[in-house]
Design brief:
Strand content: 5-15%
Number of strands: 12
Radius of gyration: 21 Å
Low-confidence stretches: 301-310, 379-384
Distance between the termini: 31 Å
Number of helices: 17
Order of helices and strands: HHHHHEEHEHEHEHEHEHEHEHHEHHEEH
Helix content: 40-55%
Length: 384
Amino acid sequence: MTGPGPEAKWARALLTRVLEPGDEVGGRWLRELGPVALVRRLREGGRPLAGVRATRWSGLCARAAAADPARDLAAAADSGARFVVPGEAEWPTQLDDLGDARPVGLWIRGRPSLRMWALRSVAVVGARACTEYGAHVSAGLAAELAERGWVVVSGGAYGIDGAAHRGALGAGGATVAVLACGVDRAYPRGHARLISRIAEQGLVIGELPPGDHPTPSRFVLRNRVIAALTRGTVVVEAARRSGSLSTARAARRLGRFTMGVPGPVTSGLSTGVHQLLREEAALVTDAAEIVELVGSIGELEEVPEGPLLPRDLLGADVRRVLDALPARGPVPVEVIAREAVTTPDDAVARLYELRSLGHVERHGDGWQLTRHAVISARGGAGPP
């Protein structure tokens, strides 16, 4: 099975300028016509497609006429980003659960494979105007999840989101920021350094093309991507009308795990979480309880997952990091990076890819080969 051709990818890049995130009518057109034919119809104008009035159709056609995907793809490359579409190897297929609301494509900054990282990921979200308690809990949960080899996904915003990202980064772990604007922009501006750090050590992703700006509706629609991408969503703090609750509700609709951290009954910033807990969300207080829900059977006992993919399917840069690990005992990231002739940030990125494939596991501040990886190597898969 071959992936999408250059023309289809070009057309999807154009459509990220035309269709708003989560546009189910546009998603239906895309499914029925395909990206190339849909772009042709939009640029030709004429009679509106089914599902829109003439005024909206005219606006979409005007957007299509003004769009320049070649410029957007070049701008993305200049900022170290790439464009990934359904059907490509890096596309996380769990996003397909969104149906016609599935992203047209994703703009991605960072070296790791989004598909590999998403296999073992948890969303940690909550209020922007959080309390010290909420920030402390969020950072602690993210750090503990990272230490267990899980990828922490959040929205890059102030408050709980930022605390979760910093917790994962501080533990030398993996984190993904899903933005409601172009991935070449830092929003909020006060998180410019944090988002740059995430792009260096993790991934920054979004549906909107380079330079595009956020709007209130785009923040809400971005949350469906966070929910679909991950195994489960943890809400740390949220008022009754908090936008972060939409992430949890989207997760529940998609059949993902929905979790909440209880707060003081006197705090208005916990009323939304407590409402979730009265519905169908699970109460969690630490990473072990989260992993117990979203992990595989035996996860807490650190039983390696299988079956493992053959080593010859790994990219050369990933294989170099794998080769840098000895047959026994955990090794610090700095030592692995030195042996693999790469940077610590790049080594962390590759280690989390290897963790998602079951080749390595994290122990404290170090990483080591899983038992299955050692057995596979002894069985003739090549030296570890």
